[in-house]
Amino acid sequence: MGKGKSNETFTHHHENGKSLEVALDLTRGSGSPTDPWKQPGSNYPSTPGLLAMDDMQMFSHIVPFQNPAEGTPDAGLGAFEYELFKLQQPHDKDVSEQKRQLALSVTRRFFGRMKANFLGFQTVINPSYSHLADFLDCHVNNAGDPFATGSYLSQAKFMERAVLDYFAALWRAEWPHDVRTQKADDSSKMMLVAAPENPTSYWGFVLSMGCTEGTLYGMWNGRDYLSGKIMLTDGHLAGKCLLECHTNGYHSNGHSNGNGKAGSYSVNADPERAIVEKLTGTVLRSPTKESRTPICFYSSASHYSIRKAMVILKIKTFHKVATKLNFPAPKGFNSWPTEVPSNEDGSVNVQSLAVLVEEFAKRGYPALICFNYGSTFKGAYDDVGKAADLLLPIFHRHNLLNRSFYYIDENGEKRLVKRHGFWFHVDGALGATYMPFLKMAHTNQMLDSDVHIPEFDFGLRGRKTEHYDYSDIEVVNSIAMSGHKWIGCPVPTGVYMTKTKYQIMPREKPSYIHTLDTTLAGSRSGLASAFMWDYFSRHSFDDMMEKAAHCHRMATTTLAGKLRALNDLVERRDLHPNLSPSSLWVCHSPLSLAVIFRRPNKAIMQKYVLCGEEDFRHGEARKLTHVYAMEHVTLQLVDRLIHDLSQDGAFDLYE
Length: 655
Ligand SMILES: *Cc1c(COP(=O)(O)O)cnc(C)c1O
Description:
Layout: H1 17-28, H2 53-59, H3 73-85, H4 97-117, H5 157-170, E1 202-207, H6 211-226, H7 232-237, H8 242-245, H9 247-258, H10 271-278, E2 295-298, H11 304-313, E3 316-317, H12 318-324, H13 350-361, E4 367-372, H14 384-397, E5 403-408, E6 414-419, E7 422-427, H15 431-443, E8 478-482, E9 494-499, H16 526-538, H17 541-571, E10 594-598, H18 602-607, E11 613-615, E12 622-628, H19 635-646
Parallel strand pairs: 2-3, 2-4, 4-7, 7-8
Antiparallel strand pairs: 1-9, 5-6, 8-9, 10-12, 11-12
Helix pairs in contact: 5-16, 6-11, 13-14, 15-17, 17-19
The structure holds pyridoxal-5'-phosphate.
């Protein structure tokens, strides 16, 4: 509030006394939070580039607002923006058509501006999907498992499955998915889940959130696998299955629904308990508590979503456990680092990773490791193969290559289940789509330089050493990527993929949708699958290689090259002579599409939509930013940036 005038703002609109009373009744009178007379405080968020001071003058007859000259320009614009988009209207009216069109055209103009100069994030800002505009006039929902049609028929799972197969092939997984797990293996027991013939075939789904959802699912998947939870394929081994386990719950549910008492859910419907009980009173077991406690390792360059996943899933990180149990600091460390150290280029330091993992492996803990394949800020690729070379012998030494769990079957017999004591998840938000094509381009001599492309996918195996043959060990358990990053979908999406044998036991087969509830979301975006399908149907491998090689050149030669040339001028003090220290700290990790440099002034940051990051590695807090060589980045755009960075005051600090 603050201005004391807010309530007067609309008094001139109160021409209709009756509807005002209604509105008062519905809102003010009841103290409803949708009270239309609410005004933003001066801290209310505003959007740089959405409106200009001129707009306030021009639109003031449509948007009711106190004197535009009031307050600071920023606060004025913020409040004006709020009024322009506010859905609640005084005295119970609709948003006027005139105001609606104005708001939409302001928004369009804003998106246009975003497209003109967008450089700071790893998304393609100008995808083109308007040829699918008619898809927007149907609700398309891929609820439930991608490989079961289920009862919600307005779906695009046929496209989703094609997209998944495409990625399975790209990531060298066995495809197609073995759908036997979805089928009844006995017609009299329609609910039974059959054992897969090819447990190594992939399983996955198209995400409705971005890679964050994929990482969350990967961590959940890995946690349950390592802690000895019953997986989908184990359920079949028990001669029982999830769905039979649930019979009680469903029956009472079905009954109450049938009797018109919808919503009175069965109190027995605790799925964890049901599964355990039906497997004759026991969870999968192994001897110690440690062996059922996965410890998570991820590098300091990881995306912030991994830290959130730890909290949501209550997964323990090595730092948390080591400090809580007072483990002595590991070799080469003075104290326990909070995250696995990363190298200067942003990739995980595999030697440190090995030291930290072994501290836990020797105590019997299994390892849940999240690798980055394209770290967010520096765009660095963790060398998963090199990590495996160091880690597999450690797992071997400490009996974590092959662990045996057992459960007691209904005849009272002990049944063994073999599992690895590690789970490698690859967070490949950008890199898992970009790098396979860069590799193809490299193989086809489309790059000018020789490059080393670290392996990360399902084809990765251990190696034969002089002591032991690890070559039949499948290293990677799960991969996730973002569909709106390198591919350029117009909505957040992505792919999560694992193997059929690692599938989590779904908690339910809701009769409501009649597919296993194997995914994270309930309703899932069908459009996301349609967009990705459309994209790959329009782009051949040749196109994709061309695009990868182009982006690579744009990052390496154009962006990094021009920023380095600018930096040379600064270091010679020919440009920005007062800058201290006289460097732009330009940095480009191998094969990264990101180029990092000193953070420019606020106007430049906003114009090019740049992000901020701090680096403390060099004994000083360096304020940095980066630009990403995504598909839409042109030479002209880069030159515009370089021009702006050459102007006086371009690196004036703010905040
Ligand atoms: C962007 C990114 C994510 C998160 O992806 P969203 O699609 O934004 O959810 C996760 N990990 C890395 C390395 C990323 O760069």
